[in-house]
Amino acid sequence: MTVSFHDQVIGILPKLRVQALALTRNRAAAEDLVQDAVCNALSAQNSFAPGTNFAAWMHRILRNRFISDLRKKRDTTDIDDMPASFLATNAPHEDRIVLKDLDAALARLPDDQREALVLGVLEGMSYQELADIAGCAVGTAKSRVFRARRQLEAWMTGEEHVGNERLKAQAAALRRKLSQQDSQNASKAV
């Protein structure tokens, strides 16, 4: 039995909502984005090749619509309007504080990393699907998820930024080298 185009659109709506929330960080804007993406898909349904990855096609339409909306300078990012259902829990007070911190850390991630992390981890998409949606190589999709996880871990454990130790060591080595050059130049001038 073949599934109709409209049935596939209806079936993918929950995943589109998750992606839209990850992109916009605003419930109302996410719903508008999903609606616009579905309208675009319905008007372009003749361009969909049956037998190809419908989910990747729809996620790509949604992502492209989001980018188009950003270019039009529409107000789509309101960090304070994170839906309660996204991080809903009946956990003790400490867990709610951790979830609030996680929410803030997610909001600080670059858009491409946050999108890859949400779709890859929460939605369970493969790296190939992430790459198809983002229009990048599979290795790039893997890197985005890895970097997002590593950065979240650093922020959640209290580190300021991943890689700061390496940068501090490089800066210290550069200062020593410059200091040595200054002392050599001073001894030559005498």
CATH superfamily of the domain at 1-87: RNA polymerase sigma factor, region 2, helix turn helix motif
* CATH topology (level 3) name of the domain at 1-87: Rna Polymerase Sigma Factor, Chain: A
Give the overall pLDDT as a whole number. Answer: 80
Largest sheet: none
Q: Give Rg in angstroms.
A: 23 Å
The helix-strand sequence is HHHHHHHH
Family: Belongs to the sigma-70 factor family. ECF subfamily.
Protein name: Sigma-70 family RNA polymerase sigma factor
GO biological process, one term: DNA-templated transcription initiation
Domain RNA polymerase sigma-70 region: 14-74
Question: How would you describe this structure to a colleague?
Answer:
This protein has 190 residues and is mainly alpha-helical. 72% of the residues lie in helices and 0% in strands. α6 (127-134) packs across α7. The radius of gyration is 23 Å and the shape is elongated. The protein starts with a helix and ends with a helix. GO terms for molecular function: DNA binding; sigma factor activity. Residues 101-152 form the RNA polymerase sigma factor 70 region 4 type domain. It holds the Pfam family Sigma70_r2. Belongs to the sigma-70 factor family. ECF subfamily.
Please describe the structure with a list of short key phrases separated by commas or semicolons.
elongated; Rna Polymerase Sigma Factor, Chain: A; sigma factor; 190 residues; RNA_pol_sigma70_r2; 8 helices; single chain; mainly alpha
